[in-house]
C-alpha cells in the first residue's frame, strides 16, 4: 500500500490509523482528562457494537454509564486510583449494555500526554471476555461440585460408621453434627414414638403406640374426660379425632403417616393447629433457628423411613439461611442426596437395632419364663444361674431344673438343645416337661432317661439334646447321689479342695439310646459341692473343649467360698468373662454345721446376679442379699435389703432388658451395684403428687453413700452402706 511521501505521508498514515481503530473488534474509548468529569470524546465502532450505545449517546458522558447494580465497586475504585495517579491500570469488571444485559469487560486505561508531559486525554481499551469468564466459572463450579460430591460421599460413609454404634446415647446427635459441619447450617433428628421427640440417640425401649399421636398437651375437654374415667376419655378421643379430620392437613403428620412422600418445607413462623406435629416441631425449632446466622424461618423436613413405617424426621436448615434461597431452594443436588441417604441409613439402622432389641428382650423373657425360680431346698444350699449369649437375639436351648420330688428326694437336671432359635426353645420346653414328669414318677435317673428316649423318639423332636439327671436322697449323715448322663459333660464333685468328674453312667444323646440307660451312684458328705453346667461355661473357639474342662476343674479346686452362691460367682468370675454360648450353671452344696460358721473368708467377697427386668426380680434380689449377708456374716442386713429393693425396683420401673445386681464386701462396708439399660441418671425427688412412691432414692440417700456412672449398656447405680 502506498501511504504517500513528503508532507502527505503523516496525513495518510493518520487516515489509515483512524480506519483501523474503527474496523477493529476491540473497543476503544478516549476521554478528556482536562474536564473533571472526564467525558467521552470518541469511541470506535466496536464500542457501539459491544455496548449497544451509539456514539451520540455516549459522547460527553462519563464511562461510568456502563456500571450497574452488580458492578464491583472495589474494582472500579482501583481504576479510579490509577486515573488519580496518572498511571496505566487494568481490571476485569462487570458492566452492563444499553439493554441492561451484563457482560464481563476487561478494561485497560492509559494516559495520553502532550509534549510538555501533561495528561490531556485517557485512552481505554475494552475487550468483552464474558465467554472466557463463563467458561472459567463453569470449570470452577464443576470442580466445586465434584469436591462437594466427594465430601458428600465421605460424610455418608462416616454416617455409616457412626451408625454401627447406636448404643452410644449421642449417636444421632453426632450424625447431625457431622451434617452441620459441611452440608447444612443445622440438623437434628426427631423420632416418632407415639409422638415426636428430639432424639440424641436411640431409645431401645420405645414401642410405637397404636392410638393416634398427640404432640402437645390435651385440650381442657380431654383432661376433664380423663378425670371422669376411661369412658369419657374414649368419647373425647373420638371427638378429638372428628375435629382433627375437619382441621387443615398437618404436613409433618402426613409425612409421618406416609401420606406424603419426599421432602417438605416447614415455615416455623406460620400458624399450625394446636397439638399438631407441625406445631410441636415449629415450637421447638423456632429458638434454634433464631440463633443461626440470618435467623432463617424455613427448615427442610426429611422423612426417616424404616421397613414398614416412617420412624421420624431429619430436620435441616440450608447453609444459605435467610441471606440466600430458603428451604429446598437453598439445597443443591449434592445436599439433597446426602440428606436423603443419611435419613435412609438412620431409619434402617434404628429399625434394625430396635427390632434386634425387641427380639432379644422377648427371647430373654421367654427363655427365663421356661426356667424355674431359684429353688429353696430344705437341707441343701442351691444356687442357679442362666445367661443367654449376648450375640444371639434368638432363644437358646440351655435349661436347668431343681425339683423337690419328696421331703427326702431332690432332683437336679441340666441340659442343652442344639441351636438358638424358636425350634430349639420348643424342643427344650418339651424335654423339660417330659423329664420333670417322669422324674416325679420314677426317681431313678437311668429308667427316667429310658422313658424320655421312648417318648422323644415318638414325638420326633427335630433337635439333638444332651442332659445330666441327678437325684439326691437324704440319708443318715449325708445324702446319696444317683445320676445318669445323656451325651452331656460330666458333673463335678468338689470335696475338701479335691475335684472329681462324675463321668459314670454315660450314654448317647436323648432320643438315640439303643440300650437301657445306666445309673451311677456316689455318697455325699457335709461340705461337698456338686457343680452341673452347660458347655457355654467352658467352650471357646481358641481352645479344645478338654482344655476348657481342665480349667473348670482347676477353678473348682481353688474356690474357698462357704456357700453355693459364692462358689457359683467365683466360677463365673474366673471362666465366664467372655462366653461364646448360653451358660447354665447349678451349684448344690451340702451345708456343714460344724465348720461353716468358723470358716475363714478366703474367697473374693463379691457376688453377681443377672435378673430379668420384671417385678419378680425385686423379691429375688432381696432374697439374694439376705443370703449373702448371712454367708459373709455382715450386720447391715436390713439396710442392705432395703437399698437393694429400691435400686432394683427403679431398674425394673425405668429400665429395660436384663438387670445386673452386684454385691461387694469392701472391708469397710457393703457396696451394691445395679446396672440397667436406661442411660438416664437416677433423680432424687420429693415423691409424685397424687400417687404413692417417688421416695426411693431419698431412702437410699439416708442409708448409704451413692452415685452413678454411664456404662456401654446404660448406667450403673452404686451404693455403699454406712457402718
Write structural notes for this entry:
It is built from 18 helices and 25 strands. α12 (422-442) crosses α13. It is elongated. Residues 207-214, 216-237, 598-604 and 687-694 have low confidence and may be disordered.
Number of helices: 18
What form results from the Cα inertia axes?
A: elongated
Task: Find the structural class using helix and strand composition.
Answer: alpha+beta
How confident is the prediction overall: mean pLDDT?
80
β-strand percent reads 15-25%
Q: In which range does the helix fraction lie?
A: 25-40%
Profile the largest sheet: 5 strands, antiparallel
Tell me the distance between the termini. Answer: 121 Å
Q: Number of DSSP strands?
A: 25
* Uncertain runs: 207-214, 216-237, 598-604, 687-694
Computed CA radius of gyration, to the nearest angstrom: 42 Å
Strand order of the largest sheet: 2-1-5-4-3
What distinguishing features does this structure have?
5-stranded antiparallel β-sheet, single chain, 38% helix, 25 strands, 723 residues, alpha+beta, elongated
In short:
The chain has 723 residues and is of the alpha+beta class. The termini are far apart.
Amino acid at each position: 500500500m502506498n501511504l504517500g511521501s513528503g508532507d502527505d505521508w503523516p496525513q495518510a498514515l493518520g487516515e489509515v490509523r483512524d480506519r483501523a481503530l474503527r474496523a477493529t473488534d476491540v473497543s476503544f474509548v478516549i476521554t478528556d482528562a482536562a474536564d473533571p468529569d472526564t467525558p467521552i470524546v470518541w469511541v470506535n465502532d466496536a464500542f457501539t457494537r459491544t455496548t449497544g450505545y451509539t456514539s451520540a449517546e455516549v459522547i460527553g458522558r462519563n464511562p461510568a454509564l456502563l456500571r450497574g447494580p452488580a458492578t464491583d465497586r472495589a474494582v472500579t475504585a482501583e481504576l479510579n486510583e490509577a486515573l488519580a495517579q496518572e498511571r496505566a491500570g487494568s481490571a476485569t469488571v462487570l458492566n452492563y449494555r444499553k439493554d441492561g444485559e451484563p457482560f464481563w469487560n476487561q478494561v485497560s486505561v492509559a494516559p495520553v500526554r502532550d509534549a510538555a508531559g501533561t495528561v490531556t486525554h485517557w485512552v481505554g481499551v475494552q475487550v468483552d471476555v464474558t465467554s472466557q469468564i463463563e467458561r472459567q466459572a463453569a470449570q470452577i463450579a464443576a470442580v466445586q461440585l465434584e469436591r462437594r460430591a466427594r465430601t458428600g460421599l465421605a460424610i455418608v460413609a462416616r454416617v455409616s460408621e457412626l451408625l454401627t454404634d447406636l448404643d452410644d446415647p449421642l449417636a444421632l446427635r453426632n450424625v447431625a453434627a457431622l451434617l452441620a459441619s459441611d452440608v447444612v447450617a443445622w440438623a437434628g433428628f426427631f423420632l416418632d414414638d407415639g409422638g415426636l421427640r428430639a432424639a440424641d440417640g436411640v431409645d431401645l425401649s420405645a414401642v410405637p403406640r397404636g392410638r393416634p399421636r398427640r404432640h402437645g398437651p390435651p385440650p381442657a375437654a380431654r383432661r376433664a374426660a380423663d378425670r371422669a374415667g376411661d369412658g369419657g376419655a374414649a368419647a373425647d378421643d373420638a371427638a378429638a379425632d372428628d375435629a382433627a379430620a375437619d382441621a387443615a392437613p398437618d404436613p409433618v403428620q402426613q409425612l409421618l403417616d406416609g401420606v406424603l412422600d419426599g421432602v417438605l418445607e416447614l415455615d416455623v413462623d406460620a400458624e399450625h393447629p394446636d397439638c399438631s406435629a407441625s406445631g410441636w416441631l415449629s415450637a421447638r425449632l423456632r429458638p434454634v433457628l433464631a440463633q443461626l446466622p440470618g435467623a432463617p424461618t424455613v427448615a427442610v423436613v426429611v422423612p426417616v423411613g424404616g421397613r414398614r413405617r416412617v420412624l421420624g424426621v431429619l430436620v435441616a436448615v440450608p447453609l444459605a439461611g435467610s441471606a440466600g434461597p430458603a428451604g429446598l431452594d437453598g439445597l443443591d443436588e449434592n445436599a439433597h442426596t446426602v440428606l436423603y441417604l443419611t435419613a435412609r441409613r438412620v431409619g434402617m439402622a434404628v429399625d434394625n437395632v430396635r427390632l434386634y432389641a425387641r427380639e432379644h428382650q422377648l427371647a430373654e423373657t421367654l427363655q427365663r419364663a421356661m426356667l424355674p425360680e431359684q429353688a429353696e431346698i430344705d437341707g441343701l444350699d442351691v444356687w442357679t444361674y442362666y445367661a443367654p449369649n449376648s450375640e444371639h437375639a434368638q432363644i437358646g436351648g440351655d435349661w436347668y431344673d431343681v425339683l423337690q420330688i419328696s421331703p427326702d428326694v431332690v432332683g437336679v437336671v441340666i441340659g442343652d438343645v442344639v441351636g438358638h432359635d424358636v425350634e430349639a426353645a420348643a424342643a427344650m420346653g418339651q424335654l423339660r416337661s417330659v423329664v420333670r414328669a417322669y422324674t416325679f414318677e420314677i426317681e431313678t435317673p437311668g429308667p427316667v432317661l429310658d422313658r424320655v428316649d421312648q417318648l422323644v423318639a415318638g414325638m420326633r423332636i427335630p433337635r439333638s439334646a444332651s442332659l445330666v439327671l441327678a437325684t439326691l436322697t437324704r440319708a443318715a449323715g449325708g445324702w446319696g447321689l444317683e445320676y445318669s448322663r445323656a451325651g452331656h459333660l460330666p458333673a463335678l464333685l468338689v470335696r475338701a479342695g479335691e475335684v472329681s468328674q462324675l463321668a459314670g453312667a454315660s450314654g448317647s444323646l436323648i432320643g438315640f439310646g439303643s440300650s437301657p440307660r445306666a445309673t451311677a451312684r456316689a455318697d455325699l458328705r457335709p461340705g461337698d459341692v456338686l457343680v452341673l453346667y452347660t458347655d457355654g461355661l467352658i467352650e471357646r473357639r481358641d481352645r479344645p473343649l478338654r482344655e476348657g474342662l481342665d480349667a473348670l476343674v482347676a477353678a473348682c479346686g481353688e474356690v474357698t467360698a462357704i456357700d453355693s452362691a459364692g462358689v457359683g460367682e467365683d466360677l463365673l468370675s474366673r471362666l465366664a468373662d467372655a462366653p461364646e454360648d448360653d451358660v447354665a450353671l447349678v451349684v448344690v452344696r451340702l451345708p456343714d454345721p460344724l465348720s461353716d460358721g468358723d470358716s475363714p473368708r478366703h474367697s473374693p467377697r463379691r457376688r453377681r446376679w443377672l435378673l430379668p427386668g420384671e417385678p419378680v426380680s425385686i423379691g429375688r434380689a432381696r432374697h439374694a442379699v439376705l443370703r449373702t449377708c448371712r454367708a459373709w456374716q455382715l450386720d447391715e442386713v436390713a439396710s442392705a435389703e432395703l437399698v437393694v429393693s429400691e435400686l432394683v425396683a427403679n431398674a425394673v420401673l425405668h429400665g429395660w432388658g436384663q438387670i445386673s445386681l452386684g454385691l461387694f464386701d469392701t472391708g469397710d462396708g457393703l457396696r451394691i451395684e445395679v446396672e440397667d439399660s436406661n442411660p438416664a441418671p437416677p433423680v432424687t425427688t420429693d415423691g409424685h403428687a397424687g400417687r404413692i412412691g417417688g421416695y426411693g432414692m431419698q431412702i437410699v440417700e439416708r442409708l448409704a453413700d451413692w452415685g452413678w456412672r454411664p456404662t456401654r449398656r446404660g448406667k450403673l447405680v452404686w451404693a455403699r452402706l454406712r457402718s
